[in-house]
Write a structure and sequence with these properties.
Blueprint (H helix, E strand, L loop, with lengths): L1 H26 L6 E15 L2 E15 L8 H14 L4 H12 L3 H16 L5 H18 L9 H30 L3 E8 L4 H5 L6 E5 L2 E2 L2 H13 L6 E5 L2 E4 L6 E3 L2 E3 L2 E5 L4 H24 L4 H5 L4 H13 L2 H19 L7 H14 L5 H30 L1
Helix pairs in contact: 1-6, 1-11, 1-12, 2-3, 2-5, 3-4, 4-5, 6-9, 6-12, 6-13, 9-12, 11-12
């Protein structure tokens, strides 16, 4: 059950990321074509105002289709319509004219040639496979030639649409950590969470769930308790502790603090108290900033053996989340926030096809005043994919070592 919850949580983090892209694209006029929860084939789909919404069979994450990510080139037409031409050679002339217009960057003429090709296609009887590929080609090229194509948009619009994915994960991290710190962000309480085996507390009969109310007859709060124990340990004297258990007050046998982990303690771990909402929000920002620096350092250390040992795949992340669930809600929220932040920062790496790579190329194109050639996009994407796959394989190897 814990594994299932962990998998769903990881899928929700990806879904939040894609939702960031979706709503930001809508906000800046880059109208997405599809927004799916899960991955195809679809269990359910419907169309609203030109956007296809669906629920996929694979219930992990989701995806968004933004129209016209790249300037169209002749190969796009050839790839989609070659099967139709093979079955109906009379389409070759219309396809050739479309490819020529795309090759000459005459987008106005390309739109007219696409209309001509569509008309010729409708007059043919094609196999379901060839027809399906041709339909996809028509939709993709119309999106790439349309006024709301991503590659045509102003630099700031493109950066907002792409950067919103990582931003959504960072925002989720802040929300999750804020909730966490309202639960456990304050000082220790008087309630016992764990008792160390063989400790003075265990010998005195203190149990998890007990609430310590007095020490030597004096009422204490969470902050006082630690100092009272330390002072008694330094003086080598016993404490008389009273706890509330199941609504009844119980005075326990004398407890003598011992040196545990470098300080005088009785061997209990207490639950934490929560911060106020404003305090928790402030702490959330501070902790997120600190963790971001550490994650960036860790990414920079991937070239070292020690750095590579810290890489985990989705298997390891799921296992860590499952283990955290067993340790309680607070620990699980910590892991969810940490994974969400890591997902955001990894996606901001300047590698295609990651979001950071798209942002980098958008800035380059904005500075140059013209788009980067598709061949360069594809070559850089191959390098990025190889690096991502390499990290994935390292993570898988590390996870296998940890599990075995």
């Amino acid at each position: 059950m814990n594994i299932a919850i962990a998998i769903i949580a990881l899928g929700l983090l990806v879904l939040v990321h894609e939702a960031g892209h979706f709503f930001a694209s809508l906000a800046v006029g880059l109208r997405p074509r599809r927004f799916y929860i899960g991955f195809p084939p679809p269990l359910f789909r419907t169309k609203r105002k030109g956007i296809e919404f669906g629920i996929g069979v694979v219930p992990l994450g989701g995806f968004v289709t933004i129209p016209g990510m790249h300037r169209p080139i002749p190969h796009d037409a050839e790839r989609r319509f070659s099967a139709a031409v093979a079955e109906a050679p009379s389409l070759a002339g219309a396809l050739d004219r479309l490819m020529r217009a795309l090759g000459e960057d005459d987008l106005s003429a390309a739109g007219e040639r696409l209309d001509d090709l569509e008309g010729a296609l409708r007059a043919q009887k094609l196999s379901p496979d060839a027809l399906s590929r041709a339909e996809k080609g028509l939709a993709e090229l119309r999106d790439a030639l349309g006024p709301d194509a991503y590659w045509k948009a102003a630099t700031w619009r493109r950066i907002v649409a792409i950067g919103a994915g990582p931003a959504a994960n960072i925002a989720l991290t802040l929300v999750v950590f804020t909730i966490l710190f309202t639960m456990v962000g304050g000082g220790p309480s008087r309630v016992v969470a764990e008792v160390t085996e063989g400790s003075p507390a265990a010998a005195a009969g203190i149990r998890p769930g007990d609430r310590i109310v007095t020490v030597d007859g004096d009422a204490v709060n969470g902050d006082d308790l630690g100092s009272r124990v330390a002072r008694a340990g330094a003086e080598k004297r016993a404490l008389r502790i009273t706890v509330v258990r199941d609504g009844a007050e119980i005075m326990l046998p004398p407890v003598v603090p011992e040196v545990i982990d470098g300080g005088y303690r009785i061997g209990v771990v207490r639950t934490g108290t929560g911060q106020s909402l404003p305090e928790a929000a402030k702490t959330s920002v501070e902790v997120t900033g600190t963790l971001s620096k550490e994650i960036v350092k860790a990414i920079g250390g991937l070239l070292t053996t020690e750095g590579r040992e810290n890489v985990a795949s989705p298997i390891g992340i799921t296992q860590a989340s499952s283990d955290a669930i067993e340790r309680g809600t607070a620990q699980f929220l910590w892991v969810v926030g940490l994974v969400s932040l890591s997902l955001a920062l990894l996606n901001l790496l300047p590698l295609l096809p990651l979001d950071g790579g798209h942002i980098l190329f958008t800035l380059v194109e904005g500075a140059r005043g013209r788009v980067v050639r598709r061949e360069i996009y594809e070559r850089v994407s191959i390098v990025g994919i190889v690096i991502v796959l390499l990290l994935f394989l390292i993570g898988i190897t590390n996870d296998i070592d940890r599990l075995t």
